[in-house]
Amino acid sequence: MPNPIQLAHSPDADDIFMYYAIKFGWVNTKGLKFENTGLDIETLNVEALKGTYDVSAISFGMYPLIKEEYALLRTAVSFGEGYGPKLIRRKDKRLKRNFKVALSGQYTTNAMLFRIYYPDARPVYMDFLEIEEAVINGKVDAGVLIHESILDFDESLEVEKEIWDIWVELAGEGLPLPLGGMALRRSLPLNRAIDIENILIDGVKIANERKEELCTKLEEDSLVRISDKMLKKYLDMYASDESVQLSDLQLRALDKLYQIGFEYNLWKCPIKTEDYLIPKEYSALRAK
């Protein structure tokens, strides 16, 4: 019996949704056992830099920093299409050039794009659940809301800038905004890596096919922070059929993200996303 696969994901509704079809036994895991851990996305990014977990959710914006140790998976991906994280401030506040801003983590994709667009801003990093209150009480001048926070925030706040709009200005029209995905440790045997990716693909696919049932179960078991219509709205945004497998358009968006990072000296060389995916052709060769 192989050792359990250590799989880490965030406790956010989209990650929970995309994994729990496996947790609930709805997916054939081909004899593999998964042990899951739920941590906030920035903690997962930091742990990925350490190589802690076999499979982990990560922010796409930090992947070039771990590309030698981890392969990108084709599944459980989250992109924005006309929406995404929001830079918010108090309605009575006007931002100076060097405004103090709360970000959800140094390695998140939204922080990458924010720092490129606002190079003179002064970031402080905190748990995303604390950002709204930090803006309301004046601890910071502004903050970038992520996850479910973008759907409902205090009426004293308003949007200063959409990260989506920053993305369009940097990348051009026609590409979705890459936010997060999954990465798998390269030290795993290739045949097991392929099996894991296929299991996770099946998990996201089945989750979408049984969305109503799964949402009800997640709410009844108190596994998500939001419920009812807001949960379904959020999942339609970040955990839909577009999350099952990377499309050609999504690959082009990732390539653009990594090109932008290279042009702004965030990493030493440009990368083409397809070169860092698990090589599927091995399965065909093994079957012959």
From TrEMBL:
The active site is at H147. Coiled coil: none annotated. It catalyses: cyclic dehypoxanthinylfutalosinate = 1,4-dihydroxy-6-naphthoate + dihydroxyacetone. One of its GO terms (biological process) is menaquinone biosynthetic process. The keyword Ligase applies. Pathway: Quinol/quinone metabolism; menaquinone biosynthesis. GO terms for molecular function: carbon-carbon lyase activity; ligase activity. The keyword Lyase applies. Its EC number is 4.1.99.29. It is an enzyme of class 4 (lyase). InterPro entries: Menaquinone_biosynth, MqnD. Keywords: Ligase, Lyase, Menaquinone biosynthesis. Catalyzes the conversion of cyclic dehypoxanthine futalosine (cyclic DHFL) into 1,4-dihydroxy-6-naphthoate, a step in the biosynthesis of menaquinone (MK, vitamin K2). Belongs to the MqnA/MqnD family. MqnD subfamily. HAMAP family: MqnD (MF_00996). This is 1,4-dihydroxy-6-naphtoate synthase. The lineage of its organism: Bacteria, Pseudomonadati, Campylobacterota, Epsilonproteobacteria, Campylobacterales.
